[in-house]
Write a structure and sequence with these properties.
This protein is α/β, with parallel strands linked by helices and 290 residues long. It contains 13 helices and 7 strands.
Length: 290
Amino acid sequence: MGANMARRLRDQQETIIAVYDRDHDTATDLATELGCEAPATPARVAEVADIIFTVVSDDAAMRQIFSATDMESLLRHAKDRLFVNCATLSPAVHVDVETLVTQRGGQSLEACMASSITQARQGTLYLICSGRPSVFESAKPLLEKLSAHLRYIGSAGEAAKVKALVNMVMNCNTAALAEALGLGAALGLDLTMLRDIFAQTGAASRVLETDGEDMQNRAHDCYFSAAHAAKDSGIALALAKTAGLTVPLAQATYEQYLRLVALGKGELDKSAVSELTFKDRSSPLFKGEF
C-alpha cells in the first residue's frame, strides 16, 4: 500500500524524499524506482521529510516506529513534522501516537484506508480520517491526491474504530459468500446464475461485486491476507469486549481466519509484489486460498 501511495504522489508531482521498510532490499528497489533515499532508520525519514506517511502491519510495528525510547524512531525528528498514519490499528495506538507526536511539536492524523492496492496506485482510496480538525484541513489537499472519497469523522481513534468495523463486516461477508458458493456448487447449482441472483437480492454485497467471480473460478490472486483479516477482526472483537457486547458471527469468522493462518493459507508472495504495476488483477499477489 505504501509503495503505491508513493508512486501515486510522485505521479501527482509531489517530491518523494525517502522510503523506509524493515526489508531494506525492498526499500532500496523502490527508492531506485522513485529516485529517492532509502534510509536505514525511521528517524532519518523524519529528518529529511516534512510529511511522513506510515503504513505498517500491526500495533507492535506502529509502537516501534513511534517509540519514545528508541533514538532511531520517527519521534527523534517529530518537531514541525506531519505524520499521516494509514494502518488498521487499535484505536488506543492512534491516540497514543498523536499524544507522543504532539508532545514533541509535531502533528498526527489518522487516514485509515478502506480500499486495496489498486486504489492506492490509482489515487482512488477511501480515506477515513480523524484527529485535530486543523491538522485534517492542512493535510486535505495532499490527501485528495490519493483518494476518491475523503471523510473526516472526529478526534484521534475514531477512524480506527470505524475501520475495524468496516473490516469486521467485510471479513464476515467474505466468509459467508465463500460458504454460499461452496454450498451452491455442492447442490449442483449454476454459480453464475447464483451470483446474479445474489446481486439482485438481499445477498448482495461489495464483496460479491469485487470477489464473487474470482471465488467461483477459484482464482486465488488476493489483495488481503488471512493474517491481516484475523488481525483486523481481532481489533473489532476487542472493541466489542470493551463495550460489553458479544459478536458471535465476528468471533466465528475470526476463528476461521486463524485456522487459515495456521494452515499457511493466503500469505503474501513478496517476489510477485515487486513485479506488479497494479494496473489490473491479472498477476498473482497472494498464494493460498480462502
